[in-house]
Amino acid sequence: MRALVFAINAVTGLMLAVSAEAATISYVATLSGPAEVPPNTSAGTGSSTVTIDTVARTFGIEFTFANLLAPTTAAHIHGPTAGPGTGTAGVITAVPFFPGFLTGVTSGSYEQIFDLTDAATFNPDFVTSAGGLPEAETAFLAALASGSAYLNIHSTQFPAGEIRGFYQPTPAPIPLPATLPLLGAVLGLGFVLRRRRT
């Protein structure tokens, strides 16, 4: 009987671990000058990941960039555009730039976690146009999910943005590996029960 209780607890723990993973959603973006509107010939490049925690109601952002033609003046997420991967839109996140973002450089990195329930996370104009803070959170998440939000890094030579990239969902993991521990636990339970009978 103890083996059965142990097996049930193990299976429950695995199921909780799998459901905890579902609390985060990640988006990635690749930044370049040709992705700007209008496109430019900057050799600058960058990459970014945004991770949404739907339980804690936070978003983490990290990005790196290099080889800009001019020093940075700002960086923030814009959106939503009229369609996925195209057009321009106003600033969603804090203005004039992310808190702690280093200006005056041509290469660098940034990493921070923001509270989606805190008005300081967003551009006040975005909150107003959305109709309030809860609506701004919803609109931001919808812009990410629809591919109509982008990270823009601005510089002195390109005040409207030197490099940018639209966020896309990270590829969904294949569910099979997540189910293997659960399958192993169930098979182990069957083995234990069969062995006890013999």
UniProtKB/TrEMBL annotation:
Residues 23-172 form the CHRD domain. Keywords: Membrane, Signal, Transmembrane, Transmembrane helix. The chain crosses the membrane at residues 174-193. It comes from the Bacteria. It holds the Pfam family CHRD. The keyword Nuclease does not apply. Residues 1-22 form the signal peptide. This is CHRD domain-containing protein. It comes from Rubellimicrobium roseum. The lineage of its organism: Bacteria, Pseudomonadati, Pseudomonadota, Alphaproteobacteria, Rhodobacterales.
